[in-house]
Specification:
Elements (H helix, E strand, L loop, with lengths): L2 H7 L36 E4 L63 E4 L5 E3 L31 E4 L56 E6 L2 E6 L9 E9 L5 E10 L6 H19 L6 H19 L17 E10 L2 E7 L3 E6 L7 E2 L6 H7 L5 H6 L10 E2 L8 E5 L5 E6 L1 H4 L5 H7 L8 H15 L5 E8 L10
Antiparallel strand pairs: 1-4, 2-3, 5-6, 6-16, 7-8, 8-9, 9-10, 9-13, 10-14, 11-12, 11-15, 15-16
Helix pairs in contact: 2-3
Length: about 500
């Protein structure tokens, strides 16, 4: 039998038992590959009951018919309907009772019971045609020798050719926790929501590869939060972020956010962004509690991030030790520090920071200037902003962190807003879909200051709805109401 004809004969999926349509090659419910269903064994089954081999021919005195029914079954033996059939010679298939088989009530039917043998099973009486003289009862037969010991077996089974190791199993119960899973929760497949995920990151039920850890990241830290997503077009997430809270020497709070975007044309951009964000965050958390001015601390943090990325150039990528002409790992960086009444930003590259006041009647503002070809054209007066950013060279960056950067020029700026608001720290994966400050303000939820994680998710969703052509990372940093007497900067 060909596999195609066998597929057509399947009415239910062997994995999840959902009904199948004619001609299906995959299960519509769990995605099981129906072409992997093994062919049925040849039609020569051998039936065993409780480990005793079947008798090749029908027992003497048992009626022979083309299709056995309930009247063909002797008392004391129950044959499930799904294992009835014919033997290889075309005759009916009758199981041989075992002396230790339990005796169950005989089905209703014209079956005459003979004397019970000492071994236990009921022996059927010989068939007597109507009108013939009765046959005298035979003397009890001598007890038969006990059968040879056989391997114990429960229930009824067919002996057939060995099935492949990957024979489909029933979908696991998602309510059962996977052993060793954190918190006792099962690691469920994001595709079928039923199978567990193995150590290689694939679903044991449907085979789908699972998202990597950095494909989507979220973190909430006190009053601020950040979200990063791979987007819809890239095969991995090359962005990274770090958010943290600390205190100044006077005990007043300070919060910080660092967002980095790996340069895709360089090697290991994901490692570069991760190293830069962690190094910058660590430097700020060390400098601010010592009383270092936030703007100075930001400058030092960018230099620390640069050193961390530069060190990656001395660590060759596995498998590429003999490719010396590859670009060194590189990334961009933008960061923000918020203290009581002071807002500091720092950046290298084209990742941005925006100011969005809670009172939307006040104007929003972009706090950074890109290190990019488009920004240079605008600054030189050669193009207006619309023309420059419409050019295919617009996003070619002129500043970055990396061993092959021309010259590192960290940019820092400080502001003293006169009203509460939020700082949006993001990569170009977001601002490509809300470039102007007014567009960014329109995308930011009105309750961003009190629900920063929700707002970060909304902004990532805004980029994905717009096309998600790049990795998307955004941090939402609330700026509280300034103390009395604070002026604007």
């Amino acid at each position: 039998m060909s596999q195609m004809s066998q597929q057509a004969s399947l009415s239910r999926c062997p994995s999840c038992a959902e009904p199948l349509e004619s001609g299906d090659r995959f299960c519509g419910a769990c995605g099981y590959d129906l072409s992997a269903v093994p062919e049925r064994p040849e039609d020569h089954p051998t039936l065993t009951m409780n480990g005793a081999p079947a008798t090749p021919a029908a027992a003497p005195g048992w009626p022979s018919a083309a299709a056995p029914d309930s009247s063909d079954t002797p008392p004391g033996v129950h044959v499930p309907a799904d294992i009835q059939g014919t033997d290889s010679g075309g005759g009916p298939l009758h199981p041989t009772p075992h002396p230790e088989s339990p005796v169950v009530p005989a089905p209703q039917g014209p079956v005459a019971a003979g004397p019970r043998s000492p071994a236990g099973p009921v022996v059927p009486a010989p068939h007597v045609p109507e009108g013939a003289p009765p046959v005298p009862a035979a003397a009890p037969a001598a007890p038969a020798a006990p059968p040879a010991p056989a391997a114990p077996a429960e229930g009824v089974r067919f002996d057939h050719r060995a099935e492949p190791d990957e024979y489909p199993l029933q979908a696991p119960d998602p309510r059962v926790a996977e052993p060793g899973a954190p918190g006792g929760e099962p690691a469920l497949c994001v595709a079928c929501r039923a199978g567990r995920v193995d150590g290689d990151g694939y679903c044991e039920n449907c085979g789908h590869a699972q998202p990597r850890e950095r494909d989507h990241m979220e973190q909430e830290c006190g009053p601020l939060a950040a979200v990063s997503d791979r987007g819809l077009r890239h095969h991995r997430n090359e962005d990274a972020f770090a958010v943290a809270a600390t205190a100044l020497p006077d005990g007043s709070p300070a919060v910080l956010a660092i967002v980095c975007d790996g340069v895709s044309s360089a090697t290991r951009p994901d490692e570069a962004s991760a190293a830069a964000s962690q190094a910058a965050s660590k430097a700020l958390l060390a400098a601010l509690p010592r009383g270092t001015h936030p703007q100075t601390a930001m400058h030092e943090a960018i230099l620390a991030a640069s050193r961390a990325v530069n060190s990656l150039a001395d660590e060759p990528e596995p498998g590429h030790e003999h490719a010396p002409h590859q670009n060194a790992p590189a990334c961009t960086l933008v960061g923000s520090v918020v203290t009581a009444g002071l807002l500091v930003v720092g950046w290298v590259g084209d990742s941005r920071a925006y100011w969005v006041p809670l009172d939307r009647s006040a104007p929003a503002a972009r706090l950074t200037e890109d290190d990019s070809w488009a920004a240079q054209m605008v600054a030189a007066g050669l193009m207006n902003e619309a023309e420059a950013y419409a050019d295919e060279r617009a996003h070619a960056i002129t500043g970055w962190l990396g061993a092959d950067a021309y010259e590192l020029e960290p940019h820092t700026a400080s502001f003293k807003p006169d009203r509460p608001g939020v700082v949006i720290v993001c990569t170009d994966g977001l601002w490509n879909y809300a470039e102007a400050a007014e567009e960014m303000a329109a995308a930011v939820p009105l309750d961003a200051a009190v629900r920063p994680l929700h707002s970060a998710r909304v902004l990532v969703g805004h980029a994905l709805d717009g096309g998600g052509h790049d990795n998307v990372t955004v941090a939402v940093v609330p700026f509280p109401a300034p103390p009395q007497g604070a002026g604007s900067a």
